[in-house]
Amino acid sequence: MLWNTIKTSLHASLPESEFGLWIKPLECKRENDQVLELAGPDRFFCAWVEDRYLELIRTKAQELGTIADVRLQVAAQPPLQVESDKGGQLRLPGMTKQAPRYRSLHPAYTFDQFMVGESNILARSACHALATGDSTFGHCLFVNSTTGLGKSHLTQAVVHQVLRSAPSTRLHYLTAQQFSADMVKSIRSNRMEQFSRRYVNNCDMLLVEDVHTLTNKNKTQEELNTILDYLIKSGRRVILTSAVAPSKLAGLDEDFRSRMTSGLVTGIQSPDYETRARIIRHKMQSHGLGADEDMVGFMAESLQGDIRRMESAIMGIKAKACLHKAPADLSMVRDVIYNLIGSPVEVTPETIRELIGRQFQVSVEALRSRSRKRAITFPRQVGMYLTRKYTDKSLADIGSIYNRDHSTVLYAIKNITKNMSQQTAVREQVELLCRKIKN
């Protein structure tokens, strides 16, 4: 069978993890001299394979046979099809009642595809530990961050890992809204006993996203609190996510808040420049756009915060490159970015401080420290000077950014101004930074 020969060839040319995740699940539905038809488990999986591997499969098919075309479709009956028993409990085919339930999974939301940086390393490490049964970080985890920073990626990575390494785990993965809706339905149908049993007696691991949506839903909080109490005390694994830090969640019962935060609590911050650059470089390469450092640097400077904006920008660049039938360049990237964010990125004290840190290889902590070493004081003074030049912040505001008072800022500005007029090296360094800020 030609497909088996193609798979053998792909297995030799692709990393084991990629082959096992994206090629092995493909099924051959039809094969003749004209066409090879393959099927994947769901539309997300097929979209990913089509974008990244279909051309490679076509090339292998043409090298090994006379097939004219390779087509990809969604399997008629996905292997993870969900059925329902009489009690309303979702279950997998062939399994007993009270089987695990989980939301649709994005095929790319795995640990391998998650870019690690200082802003998310603790959350990623804790999730991976829980997914593999490692109790280093305890059994209960609460992760909070604003939207688009990777909460769902990590929770789905946990589910992918558990399904791959321990598929018999009784796992429940849902949003707080789904939990609340299921509970209301169970109350109306007088099935609350079955509802509670599903999570108490038939659950080895519970993942609930967006618990911030439960504010002022007292009955739901009470029920989930009871379930968490049992699961945590019995050593079951629990992961909760929220868009708001637990201390800032209003409308929560204090006992419920205490229960949710009884284990490790960690946040995911906006990625720093280096992490943004790694994310963009990885995504650009996976989309066949290369990784020109000027393009990567400009995007990392411009697209701060929400990682989804990076993905949107890369898709826009890819579309524009295909439309013009030309490789992506910096001009094309600028057009897409400015169309996405509305205008060139605003210069803020924080972006200037990040630029100073990269240019002089000094951390933000060092710039804010009490150190008087020249390797620290000179970059700090340049940062103060540029912040005064390119923003409307007061001396006091600038001082707070660098953990200094306004008189220190005033001295720094005067000192850099004097040195620029007397020392060519200082002037050239500052002018270089000015050009980077303007660009």
Mean pLDDT across the residues is 84
Strand content: 5-15%
Assembly classification? single chain
Strand order of the largest sheet: 6-8-9-10-7-11
Q: Which secondary-structure class do the elements indicate?
A: alpha/beta
Q: Could you list the spans in which at least 5 consecutive residues all have pLDDT below 50?
A: 77-99
Number of strands: 11
What is the CATH class designation of the largest domain?
Alpha Beta
Bulk shape: flat
Write out the CATH superfamily name of the largest domain: P-loop containing nucleotide triphosphate hydrolases
Largest sheet entry:
6 strands, parallel
Ends distance: 56 Å
CATH architecture classification name of the largest domain: 3-Layer(aba) Sandwich
CATH topology grouping of the largest domain:
Rossmann fold
Task: Explain what the structure shows.
The chain contains 20 helices and eleven strands. The strands form three sheets. Strands 6-8-9-10-7-11 form a six-stranded parallel beta sheet, with helices on both faces. A three-stranded mixed beta sheet has the order 1-2-3. The N and C termini lie far apart (about 55 Å). The chain folds into four domains: about 1-75, 2-Layer Sandwich (GMP Synthetase, Chain A, domain 3); about 85-265, P-loop containing nucleotide triphosphate hydrolases (Rossmann fold, 3-Layer(aba) Sandwich), CATH 3.40.50.300; about 275-340, Orthogonal Bundle (Helicase, Ruva Protein, domain 3); about 350-439, Orthogonal Bundle (Chromosomal Replication Initiator Protein Dnaa, Chain: A), CATH 1.10.1750. Helix content is about 55%, strand content about 10%. The protein has about 450 residues and is of the alpha/beta class. α9 runs parallel beside α10, α11 (about 275-285) packs parallel to α13 (about 305-325) and α17 packs across α19 (about 405-420).
